[in-house]
Design a protein that fits this description.
By secondary structure, the protein is an alpha/beta fold. The protein is built from 6 helices and 4 strands. The relative contact order is 0.12. The N terminus is likely disordered.
Length: about 160
């Protein structure tokens, strides 16, 4: 079954004959727009077209959220480690790391959980990339760590 647009033409025809307005935007504007996406979604844009394959690597934001969508702490850690490893050495405007894990005794991100301890290099990476806004929200663990940055404008 073929998908149809509101005026009855097939989606294939609409795409073939239509104008790609987003694709016509300059790379810097696309990267800026992608910076509002979660990092996982920004990486997924690499399948849209050949031009998009590497755009995610220089998006000026890291936005990490919802460890459960990564099937737990290990999946999240693996994703972020690989994201940082493959990212271009560009400055970061924002690093936003958020966990929705409840504050309970069985919290998978407890202070002794080795996967959670891998967050420290992520924060050091953000500082090394001259991050201006750093937001870290993990309900179930408060850690001791010293970060020094002349670029950091906001710590949340």
């Amino acid at each position: 079954m073929s998908d149809r647009t509101d005026d009855g033409e097939s989606m294939e025809t609409a795409v073939d004959g239509g104008e790609d307005r987003i694709g016509a935007l300059p790379d810097d504007l696309l990267k800026y727009l992608m910076s509002f996406l979660l990092s996982r979604e920004a990486v997924r844009t690499c399948v849209l077209a050949k031009r998009w394959r590497t755009l995610w690597r220089s998006v000026p934001a890291l936005r990490i959220d919802d460890p459960e969508s990564f099937k737990g702490a290990h999946g999240l850690s693996t994703f972020v480690d690989e994201l940082i490893r493959h990212r271009d050495p560009m400055p970061l405007n924002v690093c936003d790391i958020n966990s929705v894990v409840d504050n309970d005794p069985n919290c998978q991100f407890g202070p002794s959980h080795r996967e959670f301890r891998r967050m420290e290099p992520w924060l050091q990476y953000a500082v090394s990339r001259q991050v201006q806004v750093l937001r870290v929200r993990f309900i179930c663990w408060v850690f001791n760590m010293t970060l020094t940055s002349s670029h950091l404008k906001r710590l949340c």
